[in-house]
Amino acid sequence: xxxxxxxxxxxxxxxxxxxxxxxxxxxxxxxxxxxxxxxxxxxxxxxxxxxxxxxxxxxxxxxxxxxxxxxxxxxxxxxxxxxxxxxxxxxxxxxxxxxx
Length: 100
Hints:
The chain has helices at residues 8-18, 28-42, 54-67, 71-84. By secondary structure, it is an all-alpha fold.
């Protein structure tokens, strides 16, 4: 079983939930809004076809296998994260730093 590293805030929230001390401030209206957003986020009502290199496809399939999800789901997730601005470019910090 993989251990997930939690921040202090996440750990405090987990302890609060597990001890029964946490009280949600979520209203019924907000819950319905969030449920609708979740349904619409995961609704897959369009199909696309793309051409990518064999090497990239194999890499995506391998990464999806490591995550335990279908590769199409991984590709869809990558596109969604990119469009929502939540996809992080880890190579930014690896770029050449100017000489000091």
